[in-house]
Amino acid sequence: LYDKRNKSVKGFSGGMKQRVGIAQALIGNPKLIIVDEPTAGLDPGERNRFYNLLADVGKDVIVILSTHIVDDVRELCTKMAIMNLGEIVYHGSPQSAIDELSSKVFQKIVGRDELQNYASDYKIISNKMVGGQPLIHVFSEDHPQNGFEQVRPNLEDVFFSKINTSNVLV
């Protein structure tokens, strides 16, 4: 920020404003910093620079990150907690959470009109539109067959499996 010291903050990019905010937070050598949605609205380059900045700050200061952006958690956190309706439903490392779902997440593209049937037959942990069709992720101890393919779980799968939103997604 030194080379920008004579510039007005209101003309800064989102990423520069975030860096100014972190600099302000570091005044007085705090032991704890809480950041809320720190990368929202940042382009990919600024997001990466901000990840690096927070990682550096996190070496000397406890950083609590409040976010719904799963990539932020994956990139920055050694420990995480998932809250649902005011209760902590998971706490531990992101990798441990992913490992818990290993070999238990399967996906399939289904027709929109089939979604309700799949919801009654399988534990759908998420669905999203891909090419105009729902791509569902299901949790199952055994391979569900029926055209499903096993996938490597990610933190989004962890989040949805922990808050159990399958009945909301249909």
What general form does the structure show?
Answer: elongated
Distance between the ends: 47 Å
Integer count of domains: 2
**Which percent band covers the strand fraction?**
25-35%
Helix count, DSSP H or I runs of 4 or more residues: 7
Q: Could you characterize what this model shows?
A:
The chain folds into 2 domains: 2-77, P-loop containing nucleotide triphosphate hydrolases (Rossmann fold, 3-Layer(aba) Sandwich); 99-169, no CATH class. Helix content is 36%, strand content 25%. It has 7 helices and 8 strands; from the N terminus they run H-E-H-E-H-E-E-H-E-H-E-E-E-H-H. The chain has helices spanning 14-26, 44-57, 70-76, 94-100, 115-121, 155-163, 166-169, and strands at residues 32-36, 62-66, 80-84, 87-92, 105-109, 123-130, 133-139, 149-150. Helix 1 packs parallel to helix 2 (44-57). It is elongated. The termini are far apart. Mean pLDDT is 88; it is low at 166-170.
Write the layout of secondary structure elements.
Blueprint: H1 14-26, E1 32-36, H2 44-57, E2 62-66, H3 70-76, E3 80-84, E4 87-92, H4 94-100, E5 105-109, H5 115-121, E6 123-130, E7 133-139, E8 149-150, H6 155-163, H7 166-169
Parallel strand pairs: 1-2
Antiparallel strand pairs: 3-4, 5-7, 5-8, 6-7
Helix pairs in contact: 1-2
